[in-house]
Write a structure and sequence with these properties.
Helix content: 25-40%
Strand content: 25-35%
Number of helices: 41
Shape: elongated
Distance between the termini: 104 Å
Largest sheet: 5 strands, mixed, barrel
Number of strands: 51
Strand order of the largest sheet: 1-2-3-5-4
């Protein structure tokens, strides 16, 4: 039937000529080339009819071409232009009936995995290989369906594909269909189903085109005496290969086994076929097949098959590849992927090239021939460097660079530092998000950009790695199943649960299955409730299937926790070993126990239990984990016999053998490793303060850092002394003894088996060991020390394994900057040469760094004027100055005028407690233990005095009348203002000289501590009196008008007031009193030192006697913190008021001259002996202050019992009406017993106190003492007891909640609030909740406090007091947006005008302090709006 006209118009091009060689083949086959050279030759009508009858497709093609030739037109020529476009081959565009060259990459039982061009993967079912193989499969299927057990034929089974093919074999394939192209499997990767049948690949090749050099695919039909008969799939012709031509293939590629029927081979025609020839000669010799070139033109384009090598001529060159013409008639395209180096522009138009046909697709619409010029495909061998072996699936590529972009297809990448390896990432593998398009101008994926990638696969056809840039795959833990070993513990994500088991996903491409019996140790009735999709589980790998990239995993905890060796292959299993297994099958004769990787053993019933049982099912179950003993291993028979009952016997035997071995080792140790012997040791590990060693007998030991060196010259790096030793090196060491690693004491060699023995050794072979040599230290002696620990205020150091001490912060360096940052200057294990400065019995010794610039201040007698050193600021007092600790028990005071060289308004602003400063001693009163210090540069470093420094005034004689000096206001009295010019020099300014103008409230002009300029009016050196002026008229010399009457009156009053003596004696008395407020003991450091645990050392002597104390008023005996800023301010205010009262009394006594009372010193100076205290007690028997200081005095002398007796006397002496005084003594007794007593003695005192005083107060005070002494467990226990005993009082619940929040136990505090609301009366609920919310703001989470307040206000919206507290808490939190929103809510409420006025004032004040002028105006506007709206209503 003739085609329609529309079909003829749409028919594609067939060649450059109207006539085809097929029309002339009947004339002469030998003249075919000549006819091709003359394509315009006419053909007779009789020949046309003959051709039409013999070859109908040729006639159709001729007719179509003839019509094209008759009606030529320009538009048709333009239509040919798109045919020259070279497009990339993809799986989506691949159509059925396409023939391609492929390479086998994987051989499975029932299919072959074939790599195709352009990163396409194909699958060849076993039924699509050849006819004989399909028949064998059909027979096997029929035999299995009708299996009567009588078939003895060996060839009835399914053929083994691994014997018929090999990985890397090139095959010609025919596309049957594409999987996933119908949309039903869209989520799966597109795959192509292929066939290797020669009758499909060669179906359109006529016998006439079987010319010399033509390469064909064939299947073995039969084996004959002289060769093999091959099926070519071509009608009326077969191939014959002589044995000589097949020998090479059999030897190199078929394991020297003869070819079998159905086997696919590649052959080449060695002699052209004739018309009457039924069989043609072919060769299987690989070299001849690879070198065969089809030189003779074929009769039609359908005769072109993949694998054929031809010669062609370059027609055009494009960026995507070459367009060539071969055999003079046919067009082909060669993509740039198939060109060596990917560079098509290295070729020229008209150049002759040889290429191999890679794929052919021909139908009524298209005729596409693709070629390749890659060397390994031309030679039909694998790539020179098989990249798939170097970069297996899952390999992580840290740095790949984009070299070329294939528009909307993907990108080509190169590996950093590797030449000749090309990788390709498709557009779907660029990102986890969908990438719509990829072009040369893409921002993220452009040429030259670098990325991280992971290998997906390797295509041996293109010789290109397929990679992915998806972060979800690149960042996975497991990229390749080969990275996982049997027995590994892995984490996986649950995908689904089914009948076969639990499906898990470890990473992309690696999945796992958990059989139902491996869900847990006990059977699960509803496993779907435990294993949810998306959840993470941990399991142990049982079996690895590298081919399917699948794992079998167990979730049994017994197997995951097992430490016994596993059996995963025959090399692992050995008789006598004990291992865990799973009961696979239970039989009357015994059980099959399954191990790892499919290994199993048989356990006879007699070896499963020692007791006789009726049925094994009653004792054991399938899936149970059991411990087995391997009895017998027979590899030849693949048989393992195991036992369960022998495990217990084996354990007993192993234990007995171990006991004997230990006894023998004990004897050996006693002989060879005696104390004092020198042995060889090997360093196993290097720690910060010790070397872990191993002796020759396998015992472990250590060499302490103090035992590693004899002097400092042996240390190479002082920062890391032990770094000069190397792991694995062997040294000689002396044995010091065996140390108990738990008790940290030394034991005899013969008693080391009952403990964890650690052999203590030393590198001091000749000298004495530091363990025995150094038990005490001598003051002034130098030692070699090593840092043990670094604390906030001091260093802990080792001077020997059993002796360690401390270096205070100020003694770590002579540079104050380094001393303040000593934590960064030192590290654990660092060597420090030190000198001992304190070695009191019962205390840890103290040292200083061996630096001559650091003064050796051990006691106040060592202090001299002019001494320069470093000290730590202990307290900063606004009125008294700064108190500096020079050493333990030695403290000095820095006056405000001695803080800086150039006076500033607040010289204390940059001074903080705990800071190290450089001081200079400017005064010492050893009898009163008063030391005056200066921080001024002119004292600490006279060579670096800054310009503009204020004059230093040490006495009245240093002041000259008429000069203007800077000073600080020290006191404001009724008689005037006193200005401090020096540490012991003050000037009085009368009221008349305070201001040029008359001011009624003149006392408000100045405040204590204010920096002022003072004009010196007169100086009386004899009486130590200075008169000054502060008004501008005198200070600046400008003069001012004064009201005469007021001035005369003020002058008259001033004449009657005597100028007080401003000598240094009074100041010393004040200083003495202030110095009593400074605690001589650094409590933080003492607590840290006392809590040192000698975990690295051993038998320290117990301290039998309590350490002596140097206690002042700062030692807390009242149960409350005394040295707080609030108390100091209150004290200073009370003192100022007292001074004012005294001054007013003096001013009333006009004309009466004051007489100095010389006996006043007796009452103001501190008692110096017990007799002094006894006299004070007689005068003030009810003063708890005297009694408590008397107790502190006794504790300074280490007289603890006397201190207790004094406390008992105080309780018996103080009048019973003085409840507060008695309670102070009780609290002092609590402090004494807490510090120096036992838990029993403290408990006894506490119970007595609760009888005589209010129990509530006693509980609170004792809890505060516990908390301050950092006994947090006891404090918590006592507070919990308090809330049980006084459960109806909210303050105790609040105190316990505050304790929890300060300790960071936020959840405990919140649970406590819920408990309290269940116990407390309802009228206490609001108060309690409000307090807990405030505590959350201060010590917990502000957001939680905010939530509590909101809930409380939701129940009580009209409680203005709660709103007020809430606002205050938010203001302290400092979030301006939250604060302003809160004020907005408050001012929008309907409350009384009085309350609203209060809120607006509070808001306005906040905006003035923290906001801008605009914010302030906005508040005023809102207030005005509220007033207007209120008036209108």
């Amino acid at each position: 039937m003739a085609p329609k006209k529309s079909e003829e118009v749409a028919f594609p091009r067939g060649g450059a000529s109207v006539l085809t060689p097929l029309e002339h083949r009947q004339i002469s086959i030998k003249a075919a080339q000549d006819l091709f050279k003359a394509p315009g030759k006419s053909v007779s009508s009789s020949e046309k009819r003959k051709d039409q009858s013999n070859d109908e497709p040729s006639a159709k093609r001729h007719k179509a071409l003839k019509k094209k030739a008759v009606v030529p037109s320009k538009p048709e020529k333009k239509k040919k232009t798109p045919a020259a476009v070279i497009d990339h081959l993809s799986a989506k565009d691949l159509a059925p009936r396409t023939n391609l060259t492929g390479c086998i990459t994987k051989i499975k039982e029932l299919e072959l995995i074939v790599a195709l061009p352009s990163h396409i993967t194909g699958v060849v079912p076993i039924t699509e290989i050849s006819g004989p193989i399909s028949a064998a499969v059909e027979r096997a299927a029929n035999d299995n369906g009708n299996d009567d057990g009588d078939s003895d034929e060996e060839d009835d089974g399914i053929p083994d594909l691994k014997k018929l093919f090999f990985v890397g074999q090139f095959v010609q394939c025919h596309v049957l269909r594409t999987l996933g192209a119908d949309g039903l499997e869209a989520k799966k990767k597109l795959q192509v189903e292929l066939s290797l049948r020669p009758e499909l690949i060669n179906q359109h090749v006529p016998k006439v085109d079987l010319t010399l050099g033509t390469a064909l695919t064939a299947s073995v039909e039969s084996a004959e005496d002289h060769g093999y008969i091959l099926s070519l799939g071509i009608r009326d012709v077969t191939g014959f290969c002589k044995l000589e031509e097949a020998k090479n293939y059999i030897t190199e590629y078929n394991r020297e086994e003869p070819l079998v029927p159905g086997q696919i081979v590649q052959c080449v025609v060695t002699k052209s076929a004739t018309d009457d020839q039924r069989a043609i000669n072919v060769s299987l010799n690989h070299d001849r097949v690879a070198a065969g070139v089809a030189k003779d033109p074929v009769s039609k384009i359908q005769s072109i098959v993949p694998g054929m090598m031809v010669t062609g001529q370059v027609n055009s060159i494009q960026p995507k590849g070459l367009k060539v013409t071969f055999m003079g008639l046919y067009d082909a395209t060669i993509e740039s992927d198939q060109i060596p180096g990917g560079k098509p522009f290295d070729y020229t138009v008209g150049q002759q090239i040889t290429f191999r046909v890679l794929f052919v697709f021909i139908d009524t619409l298209r005729k596409v021939v693709g070629g390749t010029m890659l060397p390994h495909l031309l030679q039909l061998t694998s790539a020179k460097n098989y990249i798939g072996d170097q970069y297996p699936r899952g390999t992580l590529l840290e740095n790949v660079k984009i070299e070329r972009i294939l528009r909307n297809k993907g990108v080509y990448l190169s590996l950093e530092g590797v030449e000749g390896v090309v990788s390709f990432a498709s557009i779907g593998n660029l990102s986890d998000e969908r990438v719509e398009a990829i072009t040369e101008t893409s921002e993220k994926y452009h040429v030259g950009s670098t990325h991280k990638a992971r290998v997906i696969s390797y295509n041996p056809i293109d010789d290109i790695l397929s990679v992915t840039l998806k972060p979800s795959i690149v960042n996975q833990k497991y990229g390749n199943i080969n990275e996982i070993n049997v027995g590994d513990i892995v984490e996986a994500t649950v995908e689904r649960i089914g009948k076969a088991g639990l499906s898990l996903k470890l990473s992309a491409g690696i999945s796992a299955l958990v059989p139902p019996m491996h869900y847990a140790d006990a059977p699960l009735q509803h496993p779907e409730l435990k294993f949810k999709a998306g959840s993470t589980v941990r399991g142990r790998v049982l079996v690895i299937d590298p081919v399917g990239s699948r794992l079998l995993v167990t979730l049994k905890q017994s197997l995951m926790d097992s430490t016994l060796p596993i059996i995963s292959n025959w090399e692992d299993v050995k008789p006598g070993m004990i291992t865990h297994g799973i009961i696979k099958t239970l039989r009357p004769a015994g059980a099959i126990v399954r191990y790892y990787n499919g290994m199993s053993a048989f356990v006879p019933a007699s070896q499963m239990t020692e007791a006789r049982v009726s049925s094994l099912d009653s004792v054991f179950r399938v899936g149970q984990t059991v411990k087995t003993y391997i009895h017998e291993v027979n590899k030849d028979r693949n048989k393992i016999i195991a036992s369960m009952t022998t495990v217990t016997k084996a354990k007993k035997e192993e234990k007995e053998a171990r006991r004997k071995e230990e006894a023998e080792n004990k004897k050996e140790i006693e002989k060879k490793y005696a104390v004092g012997s020198v042995v060889n040791v090997k360093i196993k590990a290097i720690k910060e303060i010790q070397l872990n060693i191993e002796l020759e007998n396998g015992m472990h030991g250590r060499i302490h850092i103090t035992e590693a060196f004899t002097d400092a010259s042996q240390v190479v790096d002082r920062k890391s002394p032990l770094a000069q030793f190397k792991t694995g090196q062997t040294y000689q060491a002396k044995i010091l003894g065996i140390r108990n690693s738990k008790g940290y004491n030394y034991l005899p060699i013969t008693h080391s088996e009952s403990v964890n023995p650690v052999v203590e050794c030393s590198f001091r072979l000749d000298g004495k060991s530091m363990v025995k040599e150094l038990r005490t230290v001598k003051v002034g002696k130098k030692y070699l020390s090593f840092v043990r620990a670094i604390h906030k205020k001091h260093l802990e150091i080792f001077v020997s394994p059993s002796m360690f001490g401390v270096i205070r912060q100020q003694f770590t360096s002579s540079d104050p900057e380094k001393a303040n940052n000593f934590q960064k200057e030192y590290r654990v294990g660092q060597m420090i040469p030190v000198e001992a400065i304190l070695a009191d019995k019962g205390k840890y010794p103290e040292f200083i760094v061996n630096d001559p610039a650091i003064p050796r201040v051990k006691k106040i007698q060592d202090v001299t004027v002019g001494l320069v050193g470093l000290g730590v600021i202990q307290r900063v007092d606004r009125s008294s100055g700064v108190f500096v600790q020079m050493n333990n028990g030695v403290n000095g005071r820095v006056h405000r005028l001695d803080l800086v060289d150039q006076f500033v308004e607040n010289p204390l602003a940059n001074l903080k407690e705990g800071t190290v400063v450089r001081y200079a001693v400017v005064g010492v009163n050893k009898s009163k233990k008063i030391i005056d210090l200066s921080l001024r540069s002119c004292r600490t470093n006279p060579d670096a005095v800054p310009e503009g420094a204020n004059k230093e005034i040490n006495s009245v004689a240093d002041v000259v009348a008429g000069e203007v000096l800077m000073g600080y206001v020290s006191n404001i009295a009724n008689s005037g203002v006193f200005v401090s010019l020096g540490r012991s020099v003050n000037a009085r300014v009368k009221i008349a000289f305070l201001s040029d103008e008359f001011v009624k409230d003149w006392q408000s002009l100045y405040k204590a501590g204010q920096l002022v300029k003072c004009k010196i009016l007169s100086v009386d050196v004899e009486n130590n009196q200075i008169e000054g002026a502060l008004n501008k008229g005198h200070v600046e010399g400008t003069g001012a008008l004064k009201k005469k009457k007021a001035t005369q009156q003020e002058s008259k009053e001033d004449e009657d007031v005597e100028m007080p003596d401003i000598s240094s004696d009074d100041d010393d008395d004040n200083s003495d009193e202030e110095m009593q407020n400074v605690a001589d003991v650094d409590e933080d450091m003492e607590d840290a030192v006392q809590n040192m645990d000698s975990d690295d050392d051993s038998d320290d002597e117990d301290i039998a006697k309590a350490p002596a104390l140097s206690l002042g008023k700062g030692f807390d005996w009242t149960g409350t913190v005394i040295d707080t800023k609030e108390d100091e301010e209150e004290e200073s205010e009370s003192e100022e008021s007292e001074d004012e009262d005294e001054s007013s009394n003096k001013s009333k006594k006009k004309g009466v001259k004051q007489v100095e009372d010389k006996t006043a010193e007796l009452s103001t100076s501190a008692p110096q002996s017990a007799a002094d205290y006894e006299r004070m007690i007689v005068g003030s028997p009810n003063s708890s202050f005297v009694w408590i200081n008397y107790m502190a005095y006794q504790l300074q002398l280490s007289e603890i019992e006397k201190a207790r007796e004094i406390g008992e006397r105080a309780l018996a002496t103080i009048n019973f009406r003085e409840e507060q005084e008695k309670m102070n003594v009780w609290v002092a007794m609590f402090n004494l017993e807490n510090t120096y007593g036992s838990d029993e003695s403290l408990d006894a005192i506490f119970k007595r106190a609760c009888v005589f005083c209010e129990p509530e107060k006693m509980y609170v005070r004792l809890a505060e003492i516990y908390e301050r002494s950092e006994k947090y467990d006891k404090a918590e226990q006592l507070l919990q007891e308090t809330v049980k005993k006084f459960s109806q009082e909210p303050k105790f619940w609040i105190q316990l909640g505050l304790f929890y929040l300060k300790r960071g136990n936020v959840e405990g505090a919140r649970e406590l609030l819920q408990r309290s609301l269940k116990v407390l009366p309802k009228h206490h609920h609001v108060e309690t909740i409000s307090k807990f919310a405030q505590m959350e703001f201060k010590h917990g989470e502000p957001e939680r406090g905010r939530t509590i307040f909101e809930g409380l206000l939701g129940s009580y919206p009209k409680r203005i007091d709660i709103w007020n507290v809430y606002v205050d808490m938010e203001i302290k939190a400092g979030d301006q947006q939250v604060i302003r929103r809160l004020f907005e809510r408050l001012t929008s409420m309907k409350v009384s005008s009085k309350k609203m006025k209060f809120f607006f004032k509070k808001w306005l004040q906040y905006e003035k302090d923290h906001g801008t002028e605009e914010d302030t105006e906005r508040v005023k506007e809102k207030a005005l709006q509220y007033v207007n709206s209120s008036q209108s209503q």
